[in-house]
Amino acid sequence: MTHSKKADYLVLFALWLMVFSSSSQMMIIAPILPDIGRELHIDPALQGTLITAFVLSLGFFALFIGPVSDKVGRRKVILMGCGALSVALLLHALAYDYTSFLVIRILAGMSGGLLSGAAVSYVGDYFPYEQRGWANGIVMSGIAVGQVLGIPLGVTLAGIWGYKAPFVFFSLPMALAFLFTYFKVPQPNVVRSDQPLSLKHIVVGYGTLLHEKPIQTAVVTYFLQFFSLMLFIVFLPTWLEEEMGLNKYHIASMYFAGGMASVTMGPQMGKLSDKIGRKPLIMASSFGMAILMALSTVLMSNLWVGYMLYFLAMTFVAMRMSPLQALLTAMVPGNRRGTLLSLTVGVGQIGSGMGSAFAGALYGTFGFVGNSLLAAAATLIMGIVVWKFLPEAQEQVMPAPTSLPISPE
């Protein structure tokens, strides 16, 4: 490491807390949505809008905050995001009907948009390229821990004290992330953008990025990654229940197995990509995942096979996520890194939305075999795109950025 080990691990812990809290509060709404509907007397047809409003407000805000972070520094944006989201989560305790809860979820989405891409961008600013796969793997394991521990804990809290309890609870680790960031996370000494913060310059900045062929390839890659994943996973539980006879507890245990794969394999795959390069792992993951998706309806015969397949699937996801994020941080200089990460977050949200929409149409017409085959084809195309067009970054020999003294900046 180029900084002291203690300083590096404190930085990683602060970013991990932020990712864990943000992802957990986002994932918890799905399993407790029926409880929210019952307590607030929300029509089932409107319940899905609570998720949609959050996602849209997050994606919209993320597009603006990336260029802002390039201008004012990543640390300020992380502090604003952690503070705003901790307050927004506490506000869930005041919800009393559909409209009030919808407004609070929009506020939470806007706050989450402040943090979208912030952790990966900060890793790109703080760590040298040859350590970013490892660092991203550790930070992003917060999502997996949220899946393994955060969701069951949130569901339990909702069962005891009501649907508001999980959101209030997750405000605590988010507040801790704010405190750790304020006291222990410095602003890396990287070149910042000198462009004015106006809508015109933000739009021009995105347009300039999209004129670069490597960026175009990265955007297509990110879209295909989330498009294919949502095609596959949205109706996977439904198929497991209807065709395989599994119940929700069986399916929950499979998600636990997948979460364990992400926790254990994410940092290892990121570290491996630091040694052998990003592209080999991204391509291996894409081709392996494509085969697994295409054969899933044939291979899935019982619950134990399901555990192994889902563990393998999440290993493939971990194999490409951390390396791809590390690769993105090296495709542009620090004064455009936030803009690029926000762009990919926005494109990923579009891919997720389109994948979810196609998943419903396919499942209703062709069953899950249609979902799995189209998801496999999209994943295979992603691997080919990476192989043919995505360049391996050449930043491994660059010296690590130094850090400024910790200050309120």
Compact description:
The chain is mainly α and 409 residues long. It has helices spanning 5-27, 29-40, 44-72, 74-91, 98-115, 118-126, 129-161, 164-184, 199-210, 213-233, 236-242, 248-276, 278-299, 303-329, 334-366, 368-389.
How would you sum up this structure, described in words?
With 409 residues, the protein is mainly α. It has two domains: 1-185, Growth Hormone, Chain: A (Up-down Bundle), CATH 1.20.1250; 211-393, MFS general substrate transporter like domains (Growth Hormone, Chain: A), CATH 1.20.1250. The protein has 16 helices and no strands. The longest helix has 33 residues, at 129-161.
Features:
409 residues; mainly alpha; Growth Hormone, Chain: A
Shape: globular
Beta-strand percent range: under 5%
The tally of domains stands at: 2
Number of strands: 0
Secondary-structure element sequence?
Answer: HHHHHHHHHHHHHHHH
Helix content: over 70%
**What is the number of helical segments per DSSP (H or I, 4+ residues)?**
16
Summed over residues and divided by their number, the pLDDT gives a mean of 85
Largest sheet: none
Any guess at the CATH architecture of the largest domain?
Up-down Bundle
CATH topology of the largest domain: Growth Hormone, Chain: A
Termini separation comes to 24 Å
The CATH homologous superfamily of the largest domain is called MFS general substrate transporter like domains
